[in-house]
TrEMBL record:
One Pfam entry name: DUF87
ATP-binding keyword on record: yes
Domain Helicase HerA central: 10-72
The name this protein goes by in its record: ATP-binding protein
Keywords on record: ATP-binding, Nucleotide-binding
Top-rank taxon, per record: Bacteria
Species lineage: Bacteria, Pseudomonadati, Pseudomonadota, Alphaproteobacteria, Sphingomonadales
GO molecular function: ATP binding
Annotated InterPro entries: ATPase_Atu1862_pred (IPR014588), HerA-like (IPR008571), HerA_central (IPR002789), P-loop_NTPase (IPR027417)
């Protein structure tokens, strides 16, 4: 299932969309001077993709905390926690797939870098079973991946730069899709910026930044002047997730707003100058008696354990009625039907299980389930069975076969069950091409090594007759396929 995020309109008024699945695989770089509309662009992307994918926002100024009221993001005020607690929170977020805004407001530059490094590293180091797809949005990325050391300790700079490099260079296989925004491309480490395949370039004036932006967009240097003339909120877009050729896009409206806005002109006072002077130089008033305050001057510090509990039990989004509870039989029927729909999708065969798991969660929600009934490891095994044509894994006739499949690595289960289904029903032995599709490869040599590996585990016995046809027996089940051509 393809999810398109409406980002705005092009010069002709046609909608410009971003392919969310492609974005997860190819990452995004946003560049523009202060006031060009970068934060507005990020907010539009986050609002329009909320509920489709987990979102993690590294927010230096605390501007994105307003997403919590409208979309249920967990807000983590970094100044309230120690570095080890930040790591624990990040690991728990990864496990429970809660969307979060990490607000670094109130921290000095070195503290922001130290906190962001610990948070991103914990996301990156999560165990394999928690590698769910997630958009990781880093605003003002030049603060966390600078080209030079600046005034922070070298140890802190290296830790922050390493975490950002891991996010952009190695995060894809772990489901982490970096979306980084910067005011100055020249101040952003090149090995971080170079890993993005999608670009949205806003207004900039410095020659060095325009030249780098033009290079990334594949434009000639003389065309770079167009970047200087872009209006606020207008960006040049390029990349597999949005457009194969440079495209001008005007970012659409957003529903939430930042806590701090752009300065606006207000009328000056009209009082005579002598009256203003009296007000300015007037003696201080007598101090009034101090009254007890019945409100907190800043939000209450949420203990780490309480925040972790919130992550595990996220509050329902406002405006959405809770879904009714369903029986185990109804849940199993919905699960089987959703898996049938996923397997029937022609594009699903080439997508990894971690990406399809996101699709699975959305389809389950549409079918009336409050949350997916399977975690990622269980979904991976059920997907392998579904690709083999087995949807009711709890049926008694499949109990022994599923027990044997559980002894195999996840990537072997689909091929084993495909042969098991053919053997149980007396059908011809699956060909190498059919097994390759289930195994997720185009190499027939790998399929032959797969069969040999399963034979070494004493689960298959392969027989090739004089005509060259192959049959496979599963001795522990007493099932044998009919003979057929292996190719």
């Amino acid at each position: 299932m393809t999810v398109s995020v409406d980002m705005g309109a092009d010069e002709r008024g046609s909608p410009v969309t971003m392919d969310l699945e492609e974005l997860l695989a190819t990452r995004l770089l946003v560049q523009g001077n202060s006031g060009s509309g970068k934060s507005h662009l990020l907010r539009r992307l986050l609002e329009r993709s909320a509920g489709q994918v987990q979102q993690v926002v590294i927010d230096p100024e605390g501007d994105f905390v307003t997403l919590s009221q409208a979309y249920g993001h967990v807000v983590v005020e970094a100044s309230d926690y120690s570095v080890p607690e930040i790591g624990r929170i990040a690991a728990r977020l990864r496990e429970h797939r809660a969307s979060v805004v990490l607000s670094l407001e109130g921290l000095e530059a070195e503290g922001q870098m130290r906190c962001a490094a610990a948070f991103l590293s914990a996301l990156f180091d999560a165990p394999r079973e928690h590698w769910y797809p997630a958009l990781v949005v880093v605003d003002e990325a030049q603060l966390f991946a600078p080209t030079t050391g600046g005034e922070v300790a070298e140890e802190v700079r290296r830790a922050s730069l390493s975490a950002m490099t891991n996010l952009m260079c190695r995060g894809r296989k772990r489901g982490l899709a970096g979306v980084i925004a910067t005011q100055r491309l020249a101040k952003l480490a090149k090995n971080v910026a170079a890993e993005a395949s999608n670009f949205l370039m806003g207004r900039t004036f410095l020659d060095i930044d325009m030249a780098r932006a033009a290079d990334l967009l594949g434009m000639e240097r003389r065309q770079a002047e167009a970047i200087r003339d872009l209006a606020r909120g207008t960006f040049l877009a390029l990349g597999p997730a949005v457009s194969r050729r440079p495209l001008t896009v005007r970012i659409g409206a957003v529903e939430t707003s930042a806590r701090s806005g752009s300065p606006k002109l207000t009328p000056l006072p009209t009082a005579p100058a002598e009256n203003l002077a009296e007000l300015i130089f007037a003696p201080p008033p007598e101090e009034a008696p101090t009254l007890p305050m019945n409100f907190e001057s800043r939000p209450r510090r949420v203990p780490a354990d309480e925040l972790l509990g919130t992550i595990e039990r996220p509050a329902p989004q406002p405006g959405l009625a809770p879904l009714p509870d369903k029986s185990d039989d109804e849940v199993e029927a919905i699960t089987a039907e959703v898996l049938r729909a996923i397997v029937a999708d022609a594009d699903a065969a080439s997508r990894p299980a971690s990406v399809l798991f996101q699709d699975f969660g959305v389809r389950c929600r549409m079918a009336g389930l409050a949350r997916p009934p399977l975690d990622l490891p269980a979904f991976t095994r059920r997907l392998s069975a579904a690709r083999a044509g087995i949807f009711d894994v709890a049926a008694p006739e499949w109990a022994e076969a599923m027990a044997l499949a559980d002894t195999l690595p996840d990537d072997m289960i689909g091929a084993f069950l495909l042969v098991a289904r053919a053997a149980r029903e007396g059908e011809p032995c699956p060909s190498d091409a059919q097994l390759a599709e289930t195994y997720g490869t185009s190499s027939l040599g790998r399929v032959r090594r797969l069969i040999a590996n399963i034979e070494n585990r004493e689960l298959f016995v392969t027989r090739i007759d004089l005509s060259g046809k192959r049959s496979i027996t599963i001795p522990r089940l007493g099932w044998t396929t009919a003979a057929s051509e292996a190719g």
